[in-house]
Amino acid sequence: MRIVDGRGNDALARVFVAVLDDGSLIEFAESVQPPVPQDQKWVLIVSTLKGCPVSCPICDAGGDYRGRLSSDDILGQIDFLIRRRYPEGSVPVPKLKIQFARMGEPALNDAVLDVLRQLPSRYPAPGLMPCISTIAPSGRVRFFEELMAIKEALYGHGRFQMQFSVHTTCETARRRLIPTRTWSFAEIAAYGRRFFAPGDRKVTLNFAPARGLPLDPARLVNIFPPEVFAIKLTPINPTYASARAGIAGLLDPRDLPGCEREAERFRQAGFETILSIGELDENGIGSNCGMRVMALESRTHGTAEISPSRGTQPRRRVRAPHTPRRK
Question: Alpha-carbon distance 237 to 241, whole Å?
Answer without folding.
Answer: 10
